[in-house]
Amino acid sequence: MSLEVPTALLERAEAGRVDDAEFVDCVRRSLPYAWLVVADVAARAADGGDVAEHAVPPPSELERGQLLRAMASDAIRGGLERHFGVRLAFQNCHRVAAFPLSMVGGEAYRDFVSPLAQIRNQSPELRNC
């Protein structure tokens, strides 16, 4: 299960009444490691107006799973992007980048999300992550 959803929130979702803030708060509570990683890169991207990256392997499989769930879900990733005002990009099992929206489509963004960059970021120790 990707998120731990409180009963009241689930009931509101079934009735079609969940706003983005409630959803993002559920993500924050359910995936605290992923939240910390994304909040960090988003803050650094906002402060410097440039791409910010996180490339530290998670401390355990629990945290790795949180990051993978956050980055693999369009809804979760999109909610995080809207909340923090950035575009997230993801490589391997732990490399996350936040791009200011003004950089999306630019050279640095295209380079990060390219097949060449993905291949260059492979190593034997990352094959099973």
What does this protein structure show overall?
It is a single chain. This protein is mainly alpha-helical and 129 residues long. It has one domain. It has helices at 7-14, 20-30, 32-48, 61-72, 74-84, 107-112, 115-120; strands at residues 52-54, 86-91, 95-100. A hairpin with a 3-residue loop joins strand 2 (86-91) and strand 3 (95-100). The protein is globular. The mean pLDDT is 90.
Provide the fold topology.
Elements: H1 7-14, H2 20-30, H3 32-48, E1 52-54, H4 61-72, H5 74-84, E2 86-91, E3 95-100, H6 107-112, H7 115-120
Antiparallel strand pairs: 1-3, 2-3
Characterize this entry briefly.
By secondary structure, the chain is mostly helical.
- Uncertain residue segments: none
Question: How many beta-strand runs?
Answer: 3
Radius of gyration: 15 Å
Q: Classify the beta-strand content into a percent band.
A: 5-15%
Structural class comes to mainly alpha
In which range does the helix fraction lie?
Answer: 55-70%
| Largest sheet report | 3 strands, antiparallel
Mean pLDDT: 90
The oligomeric state of the chains shown is single chain
Shape: globular
Note the total helix count: 7
How many domains, in number, for the residues? 1
Question: Kindly, what is the distance between the CA atoms of the first and last residues, rounded to a whole number of angstroms?
Answer: 19 Å
